[in-house]
């Protein structure tokens, strides 16, 4: 660390290795002091010194530009660069990237810090970042607003916009709101130092949209909650980006409003009677609207219709009464059929002794199944003629 010893007449300045001192007389630059011991007459105290660490890379002084421009001796120790308003810079020290320089900024660097190199990038001609440069920037942690080399007057922002487009996706490069390029799957980097850069990524696969928990009043003023599912597919990403700002929000609102229109124009009984009505109506209302923004509605369907508790109780009672009435009708129909069958059998047996005898034997068989033991008196003829006798 430099030492300055002030005497009555003489002042001794000791500049250590990797340091330089600037000497001023009456606040005007006079000389550069190299490492070593220096002695000056300073009885009037007109001399002052500023000591700098030359390994610190940057020469920071409020009057840096004037000092460097006006003093050739200082120019031997300081490297000065100024970028145009449409240029960014990559600063390399000893072959390694040390930082990204903002457009229009000025650099004052100590030449003793190492081998200095500034790679200029014309932002009007080169928007994309080379893959090798992008990797170097990420590996060195330089892609942050706090790491951007910029003066206080320059707005600091993340220098490079990194975008990743996955398989079955497409990316749209937007510069200041205008479409510049369609990006296929891959990893990209773009300079965003002098203009607003955005990459909108669209999934080209079929996607499921859930419109859940919609409280809707039917035509007969019954409040129901309905859940609907739609399957959509983005077919023209460019058209979607040009027509709407947020495609997902647009699709959701379109399907939601169509669902409310479909349900609100029908009574509860109509909705329950025709379960496909909502699906068909929503599809008819939304398909053309989505097609105009590059989206295809593949399928739409109602998952659930949830009724209020009291309405559900009433409907359960109605269904129970309907089913009970249907059961009574079926029971009466079967009883009538059985009576008609008995009547037909009786008419057939009338005057037909053989058929009558067969029915007697059938009855005897059924009686025998329920009897544990049977004592027969009078022989087999008595069993056949007297045990069961139909008349």
From TrEMBL:
<feature type="domain" description="Band 7">
    <location>
        <begin position="160"/>
        <end position="319"/>
    </location>
</feature>
<dbReference type="InterPro" id="IPR001972">
    <property type="entry name" value="Stomatin_HflK_fam"/>
</dbReference>
<dbReference type="Pfam" id="PF01145">
    <property type="entry name" value="Band_7"/>
</dbReference>
<dbReference type="InterPro" id="IPR001107">
    <property type="entry name" value="Band_7"/>
</dbReference>
<dbReference type="InterPro" id="IPR036013">
    <property type="entry name" value="Band_7/SPFH_dom_sf"/>
</dbReference>
<comment type="similarity">
    <text>Belongs to the band 7/mec-2 family.</text>
</comment>
<dbReference type="InterPro" id="IPR043202">
    <property type="entry name" value="Band-7_stomatin-like"/>
</dbReference>
<protein>
    <submittedName>
        <fullName>Slipin family protein</fullName>
    </submittedName>
</protein>
């Amino acid at each position: 660390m430099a030492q300055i010893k002030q005497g009555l007449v003489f002042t001794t300045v000791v500049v250590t290795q990797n340091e330089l001192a600037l000497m001023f007389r009456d606040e005007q630059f006079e000389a550069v002091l190299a490492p070593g011991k220096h002695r000056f007459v300073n009885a009037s105290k007109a001399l002052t010194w500023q000591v700098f660490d030359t390994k610190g890379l940057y020469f920071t002084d409020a009057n840096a530009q004037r000092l460097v421009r006006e003093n050739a001796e200082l120019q031997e120790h300081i490297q000065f660069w100024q970028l145009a308003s449409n240029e960014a810079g990559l600063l390399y020290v000893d072959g390694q990237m040390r930082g990204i320089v903002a457009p229009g900024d000025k650099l004052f660097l100590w030449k003793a810090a190492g081998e200095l190199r500034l790679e200029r990038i014309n932002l009007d001609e080169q928007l994309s970042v080379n893959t090798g440069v992008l990797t170097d920037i990420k590996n060195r942690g330089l892609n942050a607003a706090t790491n951007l080399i910029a003066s206080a007057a320059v707005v600091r922002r993340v220098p490079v916009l990194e975008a990743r487009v996955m398989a079955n996706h497409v990316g749209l490069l937007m510069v200041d709101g205008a479409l510049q390029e369609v990006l296929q799957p891959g990893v990209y980097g773009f300079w965003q130092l002098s203009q607003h850069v955005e990459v909108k990524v669209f999934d080209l696969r079929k996607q499921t949209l859930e419109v859940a928990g919609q409280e809707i009043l039917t035509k007969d003023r019954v409040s129901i909650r309905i859940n609907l599912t739609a399957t959509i597919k983005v077919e023209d990403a460019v058209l979607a980006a040009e027509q709407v700002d947020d495609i997902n929000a647009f699709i959701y609102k379109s399907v939601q409003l169509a669902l409310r229109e479909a349900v609100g124009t029908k009574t509860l009984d109509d909705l329950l009677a025709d379960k496909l009505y909502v699906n068909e109506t929503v599809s008819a209302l939304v398909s053309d609207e989505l097609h105009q923004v590059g989206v295809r509605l593949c399928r739409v369907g109602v998952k659930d219709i949830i009724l209020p508790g009291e309405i559900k109780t009433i409907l359960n009672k109605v269904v129970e009464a309907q089913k009970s009435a249907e059961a009574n009708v079926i029971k009466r129909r079967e009883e009538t059929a059985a009576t008609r069958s008995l009547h037909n059998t009786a008419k057939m047996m009338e005057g037909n002794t053989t058929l009558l005898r067969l029915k007697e034997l059938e009855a005897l068989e059924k009686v025998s199944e329920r009897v544990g033991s049977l004592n027969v008196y009078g022989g087999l003829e008595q069993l056949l003629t007297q045990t069961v006798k139909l008349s």
